[in-house]
Amino acid sequence: MTVHAMPVMLGVLAILAVAYRYYSAFLAARVAALDDSRTTPAHLHYDGQNFHPTNRWVLFGHHFAAISGAGPLIGPVLAIQFGYLPGLIWLIVGVCLAGAVQDMMVLAASVRRGGQSLAGIARAEIGPVAGAATTIAILYIIIIALAGLGIVVVKALGGEEVPMKAGTKLVYPADTAFVKEIKPGQPTIYPVPPGSTYRFGETADEEMTFQEPFRLAVPSGTWLMVNPKGDGFVLPKDTKRLVPGSSWGTFTIACTIPIALFVGWYMYKFRKGKVVEASIVGAIAVLAATVAGAWIPESNLRPFFELSRNQTIGAIAAYGFIASVLPVWLLLCPRDYLSSFLKIGTIGLLVIGVIVANPTLEAPMVNAHFQNGGGPYFDGPIFPYVFICIMCGAISGFHALVSSGTTPKMVDRESDIRMIGYGAMLMEGLVGIVALIAAAALPNSMYYDINIDLAKRPQFAQQLKAMEADHDGHGGDSSELVAMEKNVQESLHGRTGGAVTLAVGMARIFSRAIPKMDWLIKYWYHFAIMFEALFILTTIDTGTRIGRFMVQEFLGKIWKPLGDLDWLPASLLATSLVVFGWGYFIWSGSVETIWPMFGMANQLLAVIALAIATTVLVNSGRSRYVPVTLLPLLFVATTTTSAGYYEITGKFTKMIQSGAVLRGWLNIGLTLMLLACVSVILISAIMRCVSGAKPVEAEVEAGV
């Protein structure tokens, strides 16, 4: 059955509108009992800095920019391995009945309690043990979330060395030159011409044709051997395909840093208060950097921006470290400001593009070949993996940190909580749905050519043939992905991680929505890469700073000066620990290992937030409305603990058996630690609710 995107998009918009109109109104009037006669913390504790009454539209933009990172963009793309229908249903149902409910109820609870943090609310409403467990869980989710988002940037921008299976065959096209580059003590480099065939089996189904040229690295002291049983060459052990980094993309992202610094200086020093002027200058500069990047791959600057995987990790770590210790007005705030405009504008364009282009959803509704596991990203069944793959966009525990962070200190009236808490989350759900449609509109062959690591391609040969998604190169030079590689000047085959897939999907939608403008596709693609990476880096600098504050708070209990946020040595030490934490996970992991851990941690934090919101309802005498938060809590707890069981008994155990003992046991230990924290909080919440004990009123009023 052929399904087009436009009816799906219009149906989604209608459902979200109904949910906001009726369900959020019920939550506001009955469950949260919002009351404009109450004085909000923004007025009660006004200081002109942290506590400041803010127009609800301005605060909506701030809150949406803060909660909507790269998660709703990447998760739905990865989940296409299960088919588009499971992810679509979870996004719609999850955002309306779980995610938006969590965000709104936590925001309301924080506003009623003087702008308290999530850990503070847990400490006051449930008890000190639950407060400590919440603090540990929050620090862990920050570390693993930054690793999950950082690995996406590395996969999109950094070069790769893709291992090729020893003993497999490489056949050059007829009448092509055999060339090699030899340097003493270094791997021998073979420039492989386009049209070469990679054979990893004896049948015609077990081969693929590279329509793009690439470079092959063979370890020093070994070489390509002529195949004694036929044509081609036999690949020795440790042969690697070299995939260059994206010099265009890296240049564009690098330019956003000085642009943000300039915008910050412009707004705060040169032309104080001239926000519109600074916005126009910043937007024009970002677009100019995207266009200028087209010249980098053919220029002498290419070596400076064509980074390897490890160089990209180092660059991200250096950025996160520096941005975390710089004054917020200099880099963090102007980057957030630029990001919010780009995000809202781009998503609006995508919604319009989907409606105008009306692409066919090429992905199957449910992929029977991967529904029970064995997919390129999640070696497990649809339940529970689709629910931890798609977290942001449906429900995200990370949002509870924002809803109990800066936002509650800026709410002007309690009635604004409905639009800001529930409405902004619906917008993030829309982001996830648009990303899912962009990926589902890709031909099956194109999706899997991008999303299957070339080193692992042989193990997926039979499934791809069965789902008619075999390598599109078999069709000759007509391959759309090959043509797109030429147009966008990037290698796209085997670029796993989700970011490249989404950028290709966005570029196709934009180019089809604007007739006779196909020449713009390379700019659309690199704009999409910049769009994704910009928000990931914004999350990295903000998250690193939050993590630094939490580490300093902990270290300050050991030695008081280490808790001083203004003491540079303490700030450098805490920042180093946080950056090392998420940097280690990126360096030692992959999307297949990090993203499920990110999903579990994030969803378990959502369980914690919903448990706190449920306890607040009981303590405030509104127990009859407990199902509103309790039902999503039970569902998310079930899916996430099930995923934890699969990961511990499956992937992490296999790591240990394969020799990665430290990584395997570390992942098991961290997962068990987080599950233990959640268990402590849930048990404490149940005991508090059953006992009927009330929180200490003095603590609530004081905002402790």
Automatic annotation (TrEMBL):
Keyword Membrane: yes
Example GO BP: cellular response to starvation
Keyword annotations from UniProtKB, A to Z: Cell membrane, Membrane, Transmembrane, Transmembrane helix, Transport
Domain CstA N-terminal: 6-643
Subcellular location per the Swiss-Prot or TrEMBL entry: Cell membrane
Main localization (coarse): membrane
One Pfam assignment: CstA
Topological relation to the membrane, as annotated: Multi-pass membrane protein
This protein's GO CC annotations: plasma membrane
Protein name: Carbon starvation protein, predicted membrane protein
Organism: Singulisphaera acidiphila (strain ATCC BAA-1392 / DSM 18658 / VKM B-2454 / MOB10)
Species lineage: Bacteria, Pseudomonadati, Planctomycetota, Planctomycetia, Isosphaerales
